[in-house]
Write a structure and sequence with these properties.
The protein is mainly beta. It has helices spanning about 205-225, 235-245, 245-260; strands at about 5-15, 20, 25-30, 45-50, 55-60, 70-80, 85, 95, 110-115, 125, 145-155, 155-160, 165-170, 185-190, 200, 225-230, 265, 270-275. The longest helix is centred in the last third of the chain and has 18 residues, at about 205-225. Belongs to the CvfB family.
Length: about 280
C-alpha cells in the first residue's frame, strides 16, 4: 500500500463502519460514508491513502488536490503551534511545518507546495519546491506563459513555477510592483537558459510596453489634476515607487507623450503638465 498515492485495492471484508481493502496480510479501512453503493467483497475500488488524526492509515474515495510527486497551489486555512494547515480536499487538513516554509504564511494565504512523507511516516507539505521543478519546458523566447510565485529574493528576483511545473525567474531588474507568494502572473519569456530554465518579464516588448507606460503616465497626470510632480530627472527609486517602471522606461514613455503633444515639461517647477491641447 502506497501512502500519498491513488491506487486500486480489493474489498476483503465488509463491516458496519465501512469496508476493509487490501489483503489478509495488509488492510486499510474505507469509512462507510466513502463506500460506493452496492460494493461487495472482491470488488476493486480506487482510493487515496493518507493518515487520519490518530495517525492510522485510512482510505478515501475523495479526490486530493495534491499527491506525491506533484505540485499544487493550496489555501492556508489555519496556523497552529507546529505549522500551517492547508486545504487539500480531504477531511484532515495538510500540515505545512514551519521548517518547510520558505516564508512565514498566514491564514488566507496561498502557496505552491509539494507533498512528502516525514520521518514519522506522515504526509506533510513543503514550500521548498525548487528541486522538483522541471527544465524541459516547451516554451521559447517571447512566448507568453502563466505561473505561480513560489519564492522571492531581494538580491536575485522572483522565482516562478510556470504551469506549476517549470523553473523560471523574473530577474531583479525586471521586477515591477509588489509580488507575493502564491500570486498567479502572466509573463513573457525573455530567455531560455542553457540549462533549460526560463527568464521572464512581466512587461511587454518595448514598443507595446511604451504605449502602456504612456497610458499609465497620462492616467496619473489626469488623476492628479493635470500634473505629475516629478520629471524624467527624478531618481530611479522614486519613479519605480510611484509608477512601477524603470527610469529608462519612464523616459521612453515621456518622450512618446511629448512627441504626441499630450504633455509639456515645466523644468522650473519640476513637473510634467497635461498639454493645452488636452483641455487645460
Amino acid at each position: 500500500m502506497k501512502l500519498g498515492e491513488k491506487q486500486v485495492l480489493t474489498v476483503v471484508k465488509k463491516v458496519d463502519f465501512g469496508v476493509y481493502l487490501g489483503s489478509d496480510e495488509e488492510r486499510v479501512l474505507l469509512p462507510k460514508k466513502q463506500v460506493p453503493a452496492g460494493i461487495e467483497a472482491g470488488d476493486p475500488v480506487e482510493v487515496f491513502l493518507y493518515k487520519d488524526s490518530s495517525d492510522r492509515m485510512i482510505a478515501t474515495t475523495n479526490e486530493p488536490k495534491l499527491m506525491l510527486g506533484e505540485l499544487a497551489v493550496l489555501d492556508v486555512v489555519d496556523v497552529g503551534r507546529i505549522g500551517a494547515f492547508l486545504d487539500w480536499g480531504l477531511e484532515k487538513d495538510l500540515l505545512l511545518p514551519f521548517k518547510e516554509q520558505t516564508v512565514k504564511v498566514e491564514k488566507g494565504d496561498r502557496c505552491l507546495v509539494s507533498l512528502y512523507v516525514d520521518k514519522s511516516g506522515r504526509l506533510c507539505a513543503t514550500m521548498k519546491v525548487y528541486p522538483l521543478l522541471r527544465t524541459d519546458s516547451p516554451y521559447k523566447k517571447d512566448d507568453m506563459v502563466t505561473g505561480t510565485v513560489y519564492d522571492i529574493s531581494k538580491d536575485i528576483g522572483v522565482f516562478v513555477a510556470v504551469d506549476n511545473q517549470y523553473s523560471a525567474l523574473i530577474p531583479r531588474r525586471e521586477v515591477y510592483g509588489r509580488m507575493h507568494m502564491g500570486q498567479q502572473i502572466d509573463a513573457r519569456v525573455t530567455a531560455v537558459k542553457a540549462d533549460g530554465k526560463l527568464d521572464l518579464s512581466v512587461r511587454g516588448k518595448i514598443p507595446e510596453q511604451m504605449d502602456k507606460d504612456a497610458d499609465l503616465i497620462m492616467e496619473r497626470i489626469m488623476r492628479n489634476g493635470g500634473a505629475l510632480l516629478f520629471t524624467d530627472k527624478a531618481a530611479p527609486e522614486r519613479i519605480k515607487a510611484e509608477l512601477g517602471m524603470s527610469k529608462a522606461a519612464f523616459k521612453r514613455a515621456v518622450g512618446r507623450l511629448l512627441k504626441q503633444g499630450k504633455i509639456t515639461i515645466d523644468e522650473k517647477q519640476g513637473k510634467i503638465l497635461q498639454s493645452n491641447r488636452n483641455g487645460l
